[in-house]
């Protein structure tokens, strides 16, 4: 099961956080800082799967952004690694070459994409066209 998804920049600033399990707000900042420090401190030759506390971290770097996913010990790391790749490809298709600013200024659209892909910590959709269908419909209504 997916516990959380974070998008952070190379300075460790969180640009997107989504939790699929309840975590107290006062603990989130400390938790995110520790997770980000763990991932950013690793060099490029090291594996992108990390055993951390009571879960595993799967992360991937895209330019200046890191996507970090916390999962339970029973989750398949490679499937999460592919989920991250698919998520970034969907963002690239929607934003035509996604950047950190796209994430910051279109957070609602990013959350809609994430909601289409993951619900209650489980992957429910991977088809890019189906994932983008609600946003396409919303954009047609706004433009029309």
Characterise the protein shown here.
The chain has 144 residues and is of the alpha+beta class. The chain has one domain: Beta-Lactamase (2-Layer Sandwich), CATH 3.30.450. It contains 5 helices and 7 strands; from the N terminus they run E-E-H-E-E-E-H-H-H-E-E-H. It has a 5-stranded antiparallel β-sheet, with helices on both faces. A two-stranded antiparallel sheet has the order 6-7.
Descriptive tags:
alpha+beta, Beta-Lactamase, two-stranded antiparallel sheet, Longin-like_dom_sf
What topology emerges from the helices and strands here?
Blueprint: E1 2-9, E2 14-19, H1 25-40, E3 49-52, E4 55-62, E5 65-71, H2 77-95, H3 100-105, H4 107-117, E6 118-119, E7 122-123, H5 128-143
Antiparallel strand pairs: 1-2, 1-5, 3-4, 4-5, 6-7
Distance between the termini: 39 Å
Largest sheet, in brief, is:
5 strands, antiparallel
| Fraction in beta strands | 25-35%
Helicity level? 40-55%
The CATH topology name reads: Beta-Lactamase
Mean pLDDT: 94
Number of helices: 5
Number of beta-strand segments: 7
Total domain count: 1
SSE pattern = EEHEEEHHHEEH
Order of strands in the sheet with the most strands?
2-1-5-4-3
Contiguous low-pLDDT stretches (5 residues minimum) are none
Shape: globular
Summing up helix and strand content along with how strands pair, one would put the structural category as alpha+beta
User: What would you say the CATH architecture is?
Assistant: 2-Layer Sandwich
Rg value: 15 Å
CATH class descriptor name: Alpha Beta
- Based on the structure, what is the oligomeric state of the protein chains? single chain
